[in-house]
Specification:
Blueprint lengths: L5 E5 L3 H12 L3 E5 L3 H9 L7 H4 L5 E4 L4 H9 L13 E4 L5 H13 L3 E4 L2 E2 L1 H7 L2 E5 L3 H14 E6 L6 H29 L4 H8 L7 H12 L10 H15 L5 H18 L8 H8 L8
Parallel strand pairs: 1-2, 1-3, 3-4, 4-5, 7-8
Antiparallel strand pairs: 6-7
Length: 300
């Protein structure tokens, strides 16, 4: 890859910041943008390039959009100061947020009309893997979109699943993944707190279940947050009403019943209603604890 490959990462949250770090490490001329100025300044202190987005948009080879949802993705591309019309023909957009498949198809068509490639590229793996360039990316798009995005994929991903030659397939797969991930976190919280009612400590729960058939990646990753009483958000409770809502919208359109997803969603909605929306999603355990009068580790 020429060392003049220019990448902008829009959205420097826990995942986007790691993506930007991986692009820097991969030799890209990397720009970072976020609504929080300190995140931009922090990335610049690590070597990212400076410049206003409107000024550098026309020289970008790739724009990686790592925002919260479809509305933010659309605003970045086609809002009042939308990036899309300012990018050069042949550049590529990698859209990484969890969005409905139909939205991804619409964005692909709008970008294509401008001569811009669009890769439907939702990501998985958490902030640590984002920072180490070991993400899993569920991608779909034209062969030209994959080719244009190759330097970014090489820098940020351990595994790239090529799921089709048009946008939508990547987002559909991400919805399936999020169904499982969201249910697993809620189920972990339910199992841990049930165990507490029977004298099983959270510490012992993690020690035993993580080595038994009932484990999952989410259990092993999130349960220690409850044990330590640390709910600093690596992934917020607020993510799940959006993501599981997308799953249920897809299910409705397919006349598909998804009762387990619906039950998990209710727990996240209750957690958000308790004021826990900006806490780590392991805080869904506080819903169960409150309902039965348990005291979780670290609680007053």
């Amino acid at each position: 890859m020429p060392n003049t490959f220019r990448t902008a990462v829009i959205g420097l949250g826990s995942m986007g910041y790691g993506v930007a770090q991986s692009c820097l490490r991969g030799g890209h001329v990397t720009y970072g943008f976020d609504v929080v100025p300190s995140q931009i300044e922090r990335l610049q202190s690590e070597g990212s390039a400076k410049g206003d987005l409107a000024d550098i948009a026309g020289i970008l080879d790739a724009a990686v959009i790592v925002v919260l949802n479809a509305a933010q993705t659309e605003d970045v591309l086609f809002g009042k100061r939308g990036l899309g019309p300012m990018m050069r023909k042949g550049a590529v957009v990698l859209a990484c947020a969890t969005v409905p498949p139909n939205f991804a198809r619409t964005m692909e068509a709008r970008c294509s009309a401008l001569g811009i490639h669009y890769l439907d590229a939702p990501i998985s793996g958490g902030s640590a893997k984002a920072a180490s360039g070991q993400l899993s990316i569920m991608a779909s798009g034209t062969p030209d979109a994959f080719a244009a995005a190759a330097p970014v994929l090489d820098a940020t991903a351990e595994t790239v699943f090529e799921l089709g030659n048009a946008a939508g397939a990547g987002s559909a797969m991400k919805a399936v993944n999020q169904l499982l991930a969201g249910v697993h976190i809620a189920t972990m919280a339910e199992a841990m707190t049930l165990g507490m009612t029977q004298g099983v400590s959270p510490e012992k729960f993690v020690e035993v279940i993580s080595q038994c058939a009932g484990t999952s990646w989410m259990l092993e990753n999130r349960a220690p947050h409850i044990v330590s009483g640390d709910y600093a958000p690596l992934s917020q409770v607020n993510i799940w009403p959006k993501d599981l809502g997308i799953v249920l919208d897809i299910a409705k359109s397919a006349s598909f019943s998804a009762p387990i997803t619906a039950a998990a969603l209710q727990q996240y909605l209750v957690a958000a209603g308790m004021g826990l929306g900006r806490e780590d999603d392991a805080a869904v355990a506080k819903v169960y604890a409150r309902n039965v009068g348990l005291t979780l580790p670290g609680a007053a």
